[in-house]
Amino acid sequence: MTPTYYLLLSALLFSIGAVGVLVRRNAIVVFMCVELMLNAVNLSLVTFARINGSLNGQVMAFFVMVVAAAEVVVGLAIIMSIFRTRRSASVDDSNLLKY
Amino acid sequence: MTSFLAQVDKITPPEIAYAAVAPILIVLGAACVSVLLEAFLPKHQRWTAQLLLSLITIVGAGGSLIYVAVGEVVPPQGQVTLSGTVAVDKPAVFLWATLLVLSFGAILLIADRSVEPGGSFVAQAAIRPGTVQDRAQAAKTGMQTEVFPLTLFALGGMMVFVAANDLLTMFIALEVLSLPLYLMCGLARRRRLLSQEAAVKYFLLGAFASAFFLYGLALLYGYAGSVKLTDIANATGGTNRSDTLLFAGFGLLVVGLLFKASVGPFHAWTPDVYQGAPTPVTAFMAACTKVAAFGGILRVLTIAFQHTQWEWRGVLWGVAIVSMVIGAVLGLTQTDVKRMIAYSSVAHAGFLLIGSIALSPSGLSGTMFYLLAYGFTTIAAFGVVSLVRNSDGEATHLSQWAGLAKRSPVVAGVFTFLLLALAGIPLTSGFIGKFVVFTAAIDAGMTPLVVIALVASAVAAFFYLRVIVLMYFSEPAADGPTVSVPGAFTTIAITLGAAVTLVLGLWPTFVLDWAGAGAFIF
């Protein structure tokens, strides 16, 4: 099994995540799609570490996980606060700011 | 166990030039202390303590920065430290100084409690907008003082971002500066629903953009086998590595950076967030984030992608044109003053991008001068916006600004001067900034781009002048807004911004010399 397949899988996961961010309505699901993109990056980092024969890529994957965790804390707090006001997490309802 | 440990090499910790990175350490250390103050001080003492700590931090970091800048502890051309991840060179020192001075002004605006009784920030962010408790807290004078540690963390992230010499450090710094900003956007005392909506939009789009940045990082790691900017530059110098990885990685990385700088087609969040966020936070974001983002863009393009510039330059030409056109044309249609300044910042981002892609010493110094000048003008402009109020908070709709000069000639006069600076009229710093950037661009062979930029400036000047005409030559509405008399903090911030705008317009030489004192080291 060549490492290239993992890169293709990672690109696929990243694209699924990106499309998900663009088409899904629920803020939580949009946020999950962002997390999917970050994890797709982790997969390619680890694969490149294998291809390059160095451990740096694997260490970077840990950094990405920590950042993703911090982002979850901030993101869920923000989404929660707007959900409590509107009783909905749909990004289409957030339409006061426009033009 | 011992036999296993005997087999592995000892990891030697990297050398740290503490004196060189002292300004960052002071800011981030003070941010941690600030969190502790928040936890242990009683509520009524927090505002004073936090404000003092923040201002002392900025002054202290500035002091240690002067120590770095005079070259006593750091070699004159700069020093790379922390095993090559942070470069403290002349441009980094200039940008640090810019960030510190601008955030000093922004912190004064954030701390102000005289314009809006109790400050522009909500007393308890957890209370649901529109409820009985919310109306009660709107009448109280307390504010959520967590905004001070958040500001310091964001400032620390920005300072690391402009000095980061590898992409991973840059990514961490990007998140350290963004995450506090997402939260600060949602903390407005008035119009809380708009504020929360701005926070959600900024957060979702910002996280989306950082994912792009990160995938670009991964692809460049695959291309060069390292994320250090120098290693990427070496790898681009004629090898048989995959160009697909290089250019896909470059594209994704640059999208992430341009998003933060609110350039061109990646600006969608800018108007909404500028309008919804509390005005002092908008001032901080508009001035400091722009400095940080363009500092990062300059360093990445100059160090890592200098050799491949003929491949990507055309694309960034297009991006700069789109940014200027969007900013200038959509700015014409705006009816809200904060949104109008947001579109003006998109247009300015286009001008700054022109300077960044010149990749010459004059392009570097011109862009950095422009950032400094633009930052001060913007902070003062948002300071003035926060003064014009009616019974439900700031009166940001342009129709409410009609005839403002008859009510308050001073405020209208200062705002006129700042708008002229944004438009780039001579005798203001805006003119000098545009002049040095466009000169550098012509020297780098980008004359067509400069012509388009001049046309865009002319179009943009129209919407600034429209506000001036509105303020001076319209009859004030009967139920128009009042102009609050600012307290000391807001007065200092506005005076500082307007004074620097004027001084840099008249005697720009010393700052230009300082901006052009040295190049990036790596």
Automatic annotation (TrEMBL), chain A:
- Gene Ontology CC annotation, any one: plasma membrane
Q: Which UniProt keywords apply?
A: Cell membrane, Membrane, NAD, Oxidoreductase, Quinone, Translocase, Transmembrane, Transmembrane helix, Transport
EC category:
translocase
Q: What biological-process GO terms show up in the record?
A: ATP synthesis coupled electron transport
Q: Does the keyword Magnesium apply?
A: no
Per the UniProt entry, the Enzyme Commission number(s) are 7.1.1.-
Q: Which Pfam families does the entry mention?
A: Oxidored_q2 (PF00420)
Topology of this chain in the membrane: Multi-pass membrane protein
Q: Which PANTHER family match?
A: NADH DEHYDROGENASE SUBUNIT 4L-RELATED (PTHR11434:SF21), NADH-UBIQUINONE OXIDOREDUCTASE SUBUNIT ND4L (PTHR11434)
Q: Name the job this protein performs.
A: NDH-1 shuttles electrons from NADH, via FMN and iron-sulfur (Fe-S) centers, to quinones in the respiratory chain. The immediate electron acceptor for the enzyme in this species is believed to be a menaquinone. Couples the redox reaction to proton translocation (for every two electrons transferred, four hydrogen ions are translocated across the cytoplasmic membrane), and thus conserves the redox energy in a proton gradient.
The record's subunit annotation is: NDH-1 is composed of 14 different subunits. Subunits NuoA, H, J, K, L, M, N constitute the membrane sector of the complex.
**UniProt family annotation:** Belongs to the complex I subunit 4L family.
Q: What's this protein's name?
A: NADH-quinone oxidoreductase subunit K
Species for this entry: Lentzea tibetensis
The organism's taxonomy opens as: Bacteria, Bacillati, Actinomycetota, Actinomycetes, Pseudonocardiales
Give the gene name.
nuoK
